[in-house]
Specification:
CATH class of the largest domain: Alpha Beta
Structural class: alpha+beta
CATH topology of the largest domain: GMP Synthetase, Chain A, domain 3
Strand content: 5-15%
Oligomer: single chain
Number of domains: 2
CATH architecture of the largest domain: 2-Layer Sandwich
Number of helices: 5
Mean pLDDT: 84
CATH superfamily of the largest domain: K homology (KH) domain
Largest sheet: 3 strands, mixed
Order of helices and strands: HEEHHEHH
Low-confidence stretches: none
Distance between the termini: 101 Å
Length: 152
């Protein structure tokens, strides 16, 4: 992406969040959706808006449909508030990057725990092997004088 498309994407992200908070009163939007990023095409004709929505898959789809349904209204309001000749068409998508990042972090944590477990098992095996090779301390030997002294 060029610097210009990045700047336009950043501006669209800020303006869209304000529009959603102020002007969008759709009951399907249960919670407040978060716009994670906006990718504007090089010809500035379309903008892919990636959102994260808390809730179940069904609630996420309802909220996404609400955003898609109101895309035209949001584009009109952006056209009035932004100093651009034309505002890109808005395409809303659920951002799966966050889910993928969480899955990768969970896998890394699982691998770390398995490695710690293996390390502890190896240390346990080494300790038992080391203990079996060490000579056991000898018991004190009793002499005839000790036996005679104890019997009296």
């Amino acid at each position: 992406m060029s610097r210009r498309t990045e700047m336009i994407g950043s501006t669209l992200q800020k303006e869209l969040m304000q529009l959603i908070m102020r002007d969008l009163h759709d009951p399907r939007l249960g919670g407040l959706p978060s716009i994670t990023r906006v990718e504007v095409s090089t010809d500035l004709s379309t903008a892919d808006v990636f959102v994260t929505i808390m809730g179940t898959e069904g609630k996420q789809q309802l909220a996404l449909n609400a955003l898609k349904h109101s895309a035209g209204m949001m584009r009109q309001k952006l056209n009035k508030s932004l100093p651009m000749r034309t505002v890109p068409f808005l395409k809303f998508h659920i951002d799966d990057k966050l889910k993928k990042e969480i899955a990768v972090l969970e896998l890394i944590e699982k691998a770390r725990q398995e490695e710690d477990q293996r390390k502890a098992e190896r240390e346990g095996q080494n300790a038992s092997a080391h203990a079996s090779t060490e000579p056991e301390p000898a018991e004190p030997q009793t002499t005839n004088a000790d036996v005679q002294q104890n019997s009296q």
